[in-house]
Amino acid sequence: MPVQKTADQATDERTRPSRRAPLIAAAVAIAAALAVTLAVGVGGGDDTAGGPGNGAVAEVSAENDTTKAATVLDRPFTKPDLVLTDTKGQKFDLRAQTKGKPTLIYFGYTHCPDVCPMTMSNIAVAKKELPKADQDKLQVVFVTTDPERDTPAELAKWLPAAGDPSFTGLTGDFSAIQAGARQMGIGIDPPKKENGKVVSMHGAQVIAFSPTTDQGYVLYGEDTTVEDYAKDLPKLIKGENP
Question: Which of 160, 155, 92 is closest to 124 using CA atoms?
């Protein structure tokens, strides 16, 4: 993080923590303490229906190793049924175009001063440590939670700088993005103005989808390091538990 921050960045940092979507991985510590299997729901609104079909509930096993960055789910998420617009202005069907591919999905926005660019950067650096063949297999999808400002052109400019030119940036109608996020247990609200500034939310987790099942079976929190991703990516690419 730079020492000097703009006024916009400082304002965003003050507002973001209270609005960030809840971090599912934090529930693992509770699960371990209780030594039971927990059903962990995240997000707001009326996401009360459970099961892997709609992704509103994730089951976290008490046997998860809380010393690891990865949280492996007993009941994985179904990949969202999302058709949005990519950085080239083309329609992108998330399910169809990532089918059978190891895929990392993150909901964020380009004006985020810290967590979103750091997350993309960490994944990008770790990806470069993979063999070229594995680099080509890995799909990283960044779905904006601020579609009004994050146009295809803005995402096309931001993603190579924050992460990697191969990363897929998606934008579109906010209600569709919100519904897709909720299918993975991520609650986001529309961006709004406070004191003349746009305040946006972003997800607190990267969700890894298996190339063998197309299910979101592993979660990573915002504190996941380059080393964590570098260690786990080879297994994720094969659809194995990290």
Answer: 160
Mean pLDDT by 10 residues, the chain (242 residues): 38 39 39 30 31 41 67 95 97 98 97 94 98 97 96 97 96 96 92 82 92 97 96 98 96
Read off the tokens for 38. Answer: 């927990």
- Cα 241 to Cα 71, 129, 208, 214, 227: the distances in Å are 10, 19, 10, 14, 17
**Which residue type does 144 have?**
T
Is residue 206 a contact partner of residue 123, using CB atoms and an 8 Å limit?
yes
Alpha helices in the chain (DSSP H): 7-19, 27-34, 94-97, 115-127, 132-137, 152-162, 174-182, 226-238
Confidence (pLDDT) at 198: 81
220 forms beta bridges with 70, 206
Q: How many CB atoms lie within 10 A of CB 14?
A: 10
Four-point Cα dihedral 122, 84, 188, 62, nearest 10: -60
Q: How far apart are CA 74 and CA 222, in angstroms?
A: 21
